[in-house]
Specification:
The complex is a heterodimer of chains A (706) and B (62). Chain A contains 26 helices and 25 strands. The longest helix of chain A is centred in the last third of the chain and has 36 residues. With 706 residues, chain A is an alpha+beta fold. In chain A, the strands form 5 sheets. Chain A has a 7-stranded mixed beta sheet, sandwiched between helices. Chain A has a 6-stranded antiparallel beta sheet with strand order 6-5-7-13-8-11, with no helix packed on it. In chain A, strand 21, helix 21 and strand 22 form a beta-alpha-beta unit. With 62 residues, chain B is mainly alpha-helical. Classes of the chains: A alpha+beta (706), B mainly alpha (62). Chains A and B meet through helix 3, strand 2, strand 3, helix 6 and helix 7 of A and helix 1, helix 2 and helix 3 of B.
C-alpha cells in the first residue's frame, strides 16, 4: 500500500488508506447526480458540506444539470463525499463518467461563437449601411462598402461554415436540404456585393443581408441544439446512474470491481433487488424477476446450481453467483447489440424541414434563374440581371422558412423536457404527431413490473408464511413461495375458511390472512397489511388508455406474459386489442405488419424483449425504469412514473405540427409578397433587412407562444 | 466628413471588444449552468470553493 500523500489521509485511518480501483489520480473529475436539488440554498448546502473535507480538492454544483463535479484530493475517492452528502440529507448517486463523456457540449459552444461573430458583424455592417441607405454621397458610399466588405467577408467565412458544410454533404449525396438555398444565397450575396464594391458602380450591396441571414439561422440552430442536447444529456445520465460495478468475493473479504473486470469463475454477491450484470450459476436457491427479458410477470423460483442470465433481477434474499461469462459476452449485451443494428434503420426518415426544402429550393432557384433570364434577354444587361437574381434569392427569406421548423421543435422539446419527457431524436416530434396507434407493453410499462410483496417486519413475515402454508389455495401457495426466506411462526387454532382465508392465534391474539378488496390482506393485532399478489397498474395507466381512446387512437396491449394475466389487466384498463404470449421477435414482426397496414405505431415498452419493437416502430417511448437497451432503442424517455406523459407527448406533438404548418404558411405569405417585388427588380437591401428580420421574429414568436 | 476616419474604427473596435468579451465568457464556461448562476446570486457569501473546479480544466464536459 502506498504512503498516504497528505495529513488528512493519515488522520482518516484505514478506510482511505486503501484506495479502490474507483479512486482516481488527482485531477480526474467525478460526477455525482443530485436529483433533488432545486435552489440556491441547496447549492450552498452541498458545497459547504464538502468544502472542508480533506478528501475533496474542489466541488461545484451545476444546478441546471442537477449534478456535482467533484475533484478528489490525490489518492482519495468519492466515498467520503457521498457519505457526507447523505448525512446532510442530499440524495446523491455516483455517475459513470465514461457514459457521460460523449455528451460534452463542444458543438453548442461552437454554434454560439459563430452566432456571436455573425451578430457582431451584422450590427456593424448595418450601422454603416444605414448611412448608405439614407443617401450617402459618392465617395462616402464607396468607402462604406469597403468597410462593410472588410467586416463581412471574414465574419461570413467563419460563421457560415455549418451551412456550407451541410449543403456540400447534401449535394454530394444528391439530396436537397434547407442549407442548399441558404448557402447559395449567402455565397451569391457575398460575391455580387464584392464585385459591386470593386466596380464602384453605386449599385446595391448585400453584405448586411448575408450576415443577418447567417445570424438568425445560427441562433435558431443553437436553440434547437440546446433543447436536444439537454434531453440527450439527461438520457445519458440515466445510463451513467447504472454503475458498472459489482461486489466480488475474495479470500480475504469483499471488494468492489468494475463489471468489465469480472472473469469466469469469480464469485459475486448480488443484493436483493439488484440486476445481474453477467451470466452465472446461482449458489443458492433464489427467486428471479425475468420480466425484462421475457415480459412474464411471474417471479421464477430457482434452485441452487441453476443458470442466471444477465439482466434478471434477484428478488427476496441476496444471492451469490459464480460468473460463467464475461460481461461483454453475456446474454444481455449480445441482445443489446442487435438493437444498435435495428436502430440505424429509422434515421432514413426525412423530416418536414427536408420535405419543405425539397419543395422550396427548386421554386426559389427556378424563380431566380427565370428572373435572370428574363432581365438579360429583355435588357441585355448582364450586370443588372445578376443583381435581380441575387435580390430574389435573398429576399425570398429562406430565413423564416428555415426557422419555421427548428423554432417550434426547440420550444416543444423544451416544454416536454420540463414535463419529464426526453426526446432524443431530432425527428421524434414529427413522428409522434403522425401516430395513430399506441402499443403498450404490459409488464413494467402498463404495470409496475413484477408483483412484489411490501417489505414486511420480520415477525409479520413469519406469521404470514405460517398462515399461507396452512392452505392449498393458489394465492396462499404463491404467498408462501414469496416468503420462503422467512421461518414460519408458531401458530395455534389454525382454520381455513374456503374462499375467504386462513385464521389462527399467534401468542394468544387472533391473526388472519384474509381476502381483501385488492388481494390478500394480513390482519395482525392492531394493523392490516395488504399483500398484493397481482401486478398493480402504473399510475395514470387507466387515464392514459381512456384519454388516448377518446382522442381517437387505437390502443393495443402487447405482452410476453400469459393471456390470462393480460386479459385481466386489459379489462381493467379498457384495452380492446390484446396480443399475449408474444415473443420478442414476434413483437417486432407484429409491428412491421401494422406498419404495412399503413398504421403509424407508437411503441411504449421497457424490456429487452421490447427493444426490437421499439426500434422498429414509427416512434417509441420508454419509461426511465426501462433497461438501458430499451432506452437506447427508443426516441424518448419518460422520467416520471405517471403514464399520462404518453398522452401529453402526443398532444404536444400534434400541437407542434400545427405550429410548424402555421409557420410555413407565414413564411410562404411573406414570399408571396416579396418574390414579385424582387423579380421585377424593385428589391433593395433595406427591404431585405426589414422583411428578413420581421418574418424571422414572427415565426419565432409563433413558436414560443403557449 | 473626415471625422469618419476616426469614428468608424472606433465603432468597429468597440464592437470587437464586445465580441471578445462574449467569446471569453463562452470559453470560460459561463453558459454551462445558467440556472445555477442565477440562483448563486442569492447566496450571501461565496462558498469556499468557487470557480476552482471549473478553471483547472476549462473544457470540462458537462
Amino acid at each position: 500500500m502506498s504512503i498516504a500523500a497528505c495529513p488528512g489521509c493519515l488522520a482518516a485511518g484505514p478506510a482511505v488508506e486503501m484506495p479502490r480501483r474507483a479512486a482516481t489520480e488527482a485531477g480526474e473529475a467525478i460526477y455525482i447526480a443530485l436529483p433533488r436539488i432545486h435552489c440556491a440554498a441547496c447549492i450552498a448546502g452541498v458545497e459547504r458540506a464538502l468544502a472542508n473535507l480533506p478528501s475533496v480538492a474542489a466541488a461545484r454544483v451545476n444546478l441546471g444539470a442537477k449534478r456535482l463535479r467533484l475533484l478528489p484530493a490525490p489518492g482519495h475517492d468519492e466515498s467520503e463525499a457521498l457519505r457526507v452528502l447523505h448525512a446532510a440529507g442530499f440524495e446523491a448517486h455516483l455517475l459513470d463518467a465514461s457514459a457521460l463523456r460523449p455528451t460534452g457540449d463542444e458543438e453548442g459552444r461552437r454554434l454560439l461563437a459563430r452566432a456571436a461573430v455573425a451578430g457582431f458583424a451584422m450590427m456593424n455592417v448595418m450601422a454603416v449601411s444605414v448611412a448608405v441607405w439614407s443617401g450617402a454621397g459618392e465617395v462616402t458610399r464607396e468607402m462604406f462598402h469597403w468597410v462593410s466588405a472588410a467586416i463581412a467577408l471574414p465574419a461570413l467565412a467563419f460563421s457560415a461554415v455549418p451551412f456550407f458544410a451541410s449543403a456540400t454533404v447534401a449535394l454530394r449525396a444528391g439530396r436537397m436540404n434547407m442549407d442548399v438555398p441558404i448557402a447559395m444565397a449567402i455565397l451569391l450575396a457575398a460575391t455580387t456585393s464584392l464585385y459591386e464594391t470593386f466596380a464602384g458602380s453605386g449599385a446595391h450591396t448585400w453584405f448586411d443581408a448575408a450576415l443577418s441571414l447567417c445570424f438568425f439561422l445560427l441562433v435558431g440552430r443553437y436553440l434547437e441544439h440546446r433543447a436536444r442536447a439537454t434531453a440527450r444529456s439527461a438520457a445519458a445520465e440515466l445510463t451513467a446512474l447504472e454503475l458498472p460495478r459489482a461486489t466480488r468475493l475474495t479470500e480475504t473479504g469483499r471488494e468492489t470491481v468494475d463489471v468489465a473486470a469480472l472473469l469466469p469463475g469469480d464469485r459475486i454477491v448480488l443484493a436483493a433487488g439488484a440486476r445481474s450484470p453477467v451470466d452465472g450459476i446461482a449458489e443458492g436457491p433464489a427467486t428471479l424477476d425475468r420480466s425484462a427479458l421475457t415480459g412474464e410477470a411471474e417471479p421464477v423460483p430457482l434452485l441452487a446450481g441453476a443458470a442466471v442470465c444477465a439482466g434478471e433481477v434477484i428478488l427476496g434474499a441476496p444471492l451469490t453467483l459464480t460468473v460463467t461469462r464475461r460481461a461483454e459476452d453475456s446474454t444481455l449485451r449480445r441482445l443489446a447489440a442487435l438493437v444498435e443494428v435495428a436502430e440505424t434503420g429509422r434515421h432514413r426518415y426525412s423530416g418536414l424541414a427536408d420535405r419543405a426544402a425539397r419543395l422550396y429550393a427548386p421554386v426559389v432557384h427556378g424563380l431566380a434563374a427565370l428572373a435572370f433570364a428574363l432581365w438579360w434577354s429583355l435588357t441585355g444587361d448582364l450586370h443588372h440581371a445578376i443583381s435581380v437574381a441575387t435580390a430574389t434569392l435573398i429576399i425570398t427569406c429562406p430565413c423564416a422558412l428555415a426557422l419555421a421548423i427548428p423554432a417550434v421543435t426547440a420550444a416543444m422539446t423544451g416544454r416536454l423536457f420540463r414535463g419529464g419527457v426526453l426526446l432524443k431524436s431530432p425527428t421524434a416530434l414529427e413522428r409522434l404527431a403522425e401516430v395513430d396507434t399506441v402499443v403498450f407493453d404490459k409488464t413494467g410499462t402498463l404495470t409496475e413490473g413484477v408483483a412484489r410483496l411490501p417489505d414486511l417486519p420480520l415477525e409479520a413475515a413469519s406469521v404470514a408464511r405460517a398462515l399461507a402454508e396452512a392452505s392449498d389455495h393458489p394465492v396462499s401457495r404463491a404467498l408462501a413461495a414469496a416468503l420462503a426466506g422467512h421461518a414460519p411462526a408458531r401458530l395455534t387454532d389454525l382454520r381455513e375458511v374456503p374462499g375467504e382465508g386462513v385464521a389462527a392465534r399467534w401468542n394468544g391474539s387472533p391473526v388472519r390472512l384474509w381476502r381483501g378488496a385488492e388481494g390478500p390482506e394480513l390482519e395482525l393485532p392492531g394493523q392490516v397489511i395488504p399483500l398484493p399478489l397481482t401486478e398493480r397498474p402504473r399510475q395514470g395507466a387507466a387515464e392514459v388508455t381512456a384519454d388516448l381512446a377518446g382522442a381517437g387512437y387505437d390502443v393495443v396491449m402487447l405482452t410476453g406474459d400469459t393471456p390470462a394475466r393480460a386479459e385481466v389487466l386489459a379489462r381493467r384498463l379498457g384495452i380492446a386489442e390484446v396480443h399475449a404470449g408474444v415473443r420478442a421477435a414476434d413483437k417486432a414482426d407484429l409491428l412491421a405488419r401494422m406498419a404495412r397496414e399503413g398504421r403509424c405505431v407508437l411503441m411504449v415498452g421497457d424490456g429487452l424483449n421490447d427493444t426490437g419493437a421499439l426500434a422498429g416502430a414509427h416512434a417509441s417511448l420508454a419509461p426511465a425504469s426501462a433497461l438501458d437497451a430499451a432506452r437506447v432503442a427508443s426516441d424518448g424517455v419518460m422520467l416520471g412514473t405517471d403514464l399520462r406523459a404518453v398522452a401529453q407527448s402526443l398532444a404536444l406533438a400534434r400541437r407542434a405540427r400545427r405550429r410548424i404548418r402555421q409557420n410555413l404558411a407565414l413564411a410562404a405569405l411573406y414570399n408571396a409578397v416579396a418574390i414579385p417585388v424582387a423579380v421585377l427588380g424593385h428589391a433593395t437591401p433595406l427591404m431585405a433587412a426589414a422583411v428578413m428580420s420581421s418574418s424571422s421574429i414572427l415565426v419565432v414568436l409563433n413558436a414560443v407562444r403557449r | 466628413m473626415n471625422i469618419l476616419i476616426v469614428l468608424i474604427p472606433v465603432s468597429v473596435a468597440l464592437g470587437a471588444a464586445g465580441l471578445a468579451a462574449c467569446l471569453w465568457t463562452l470559453r470560460n464556461g459561463q453558459y454551462e449552468d445558467l440556472e445555477g448562476d442565477a440562483a448563486r446570486i442569492l447566496l450571501e457569501e461565496t462558498p469556499p470553493s468557487p470557480r476552482g473546479a471549473e478553471t483547472k480544466t476549462p473544457a470540462a464536459p458537462e
